[in-house]
Amino acid sequence: MGTSGHLEENESLEAAMQRELLEELGISVSLKNVQFLSLIHKNDLETGLVYLNAYFVINKFEGVPKIMEPQKNAELKWVSLNELPVNLIDDRKVALQNMKEKTPYLEIGWDK
User: Fold this and answer.
1) Contact residues for 110 (Cβ-Cβ < 8 A; gap 6+)
2) What is the strand order of the sheet 105-108 is part of?
């Protein structure tokens, strides 16, 4: 299960994550049940946009996950890490690889 969004003015990453989970999935999380996973600093060469994508693991939540923004999401389902959808966004695949390899930070699309 995942969600994404943008930071609002004067909003922390954790507060944004909590807000987005409520807005997009209808669930509430306490920060004591959240673990930071990874930060990906991406220079998207196709669009020219730069992103900082933060990923968290939610160990416990309140509510029943449901699609709150049907115009943005076609489906919500639980899947095994071994059976990910073929159309999963590449950044999400990288974040899951970071989780497996315990990589907290990664840069993509930058000349090194």
Assistant:
1) 41, 43
2) 49-58, 34-44, 105-108
Letter string b/e over residues 59-88, b meaning 16 or more CB atoms within 10 A of that residue's CB? eebeeebeebeeeeeeeeeeeeeeeeeeee
Q: Residue 76 gets which letter from DSSP? A: -
Residue 10 to residue 5: CA distance in whole angstroms: 15
Which of the 8 DSSP states describes residue 62?
A: B
What whole-number distance in Å separates Cα of residue 22 and Cα of residue 27? 5
Per the prediction, the chain carries an average pLDDT of: 90
Give burial (CB, 10 Å; 0-12/13-18/19+) of 47: exposed
Residue 6 confidence class, pLDDT cut points 50, 70, 90: confident
Q: Any residues with CB less than 8 A from the CB of 68 and at least 6 apart, and which?
A: 23, 24, 25, 26
